[in-house]
Structure prediction request, 224 residues.
Amino acid sequence: DAMVIQNPRYQVTQFGKPVTLSCSQTLNHNVMYWYQQKSSQAPKLLFHYYDKDFNNEADTPDNFQSRRPNTSFCFLDIRSPGLGDAAMYLCATSKSSHKETQYFGPGTRLLVL
Amino acid sequence: SQKIEQNSEALNIQEGKTATLTCNYTNYSPAYLQWYRQDPGRGPVFLLLIRENEKEKRKERLKVTFDTTLKQSLFHITASQPADSATYLCALEGGSYIPTFGRGTSLIVHP
Prediction:
């Protein structure tokens, strides 16, 4: 089945220790998104790629970076995680950016010790 | 400022009843609005999309209405079942072509 896969499902890191979360998709969609979701809050868009074009949200901290080496894969790098970065990180895709349904992965739960 | 408001209190209903969830928004003129379901510890799953020129959309036991004058969407689940228990998020296009999500409302269906 075509899908969005996120690894790992749970990630524990130490304060200040860089961490990378990964996302892959078999849908061959052009757009990939990274969201941060804290408990009982709305998913917050961090950035998205339309093909190779990177689009950063204005309020996304510099501590968060992303890479998309090819259509199928996208990575979220947190350079120096703080306690406030503990959250669920959701990867999503859509066929094109406009008026399209988003398909989400299962998420990676990040814990910062 | 732009706001999407969904009731933060959980909606508790009995099995078989119709659940109605509300999504209100301010300072948006969305071309469309979507509803997603999210189970604990999982990513959201798309349910329905309704466009600005549509008043109502149905899919099996689900019905969505969209009133651009009231700036409100209602999401109905008829003949609700315990398996419908989840958080339901609305998302609307805010002019940047990418949907913005509300925080969701938790629905609990009691047997």
The interface with chain A takes residues 4, 8, 31-32, 34, 41-46, 49, 51, 89, 91, 93, 97-104 of chain B (CB under 8 Å). The CA atoms of residues 15 and 60 of chain B lie 17 Å apart. Chain B has a mean pLDDT of 93.
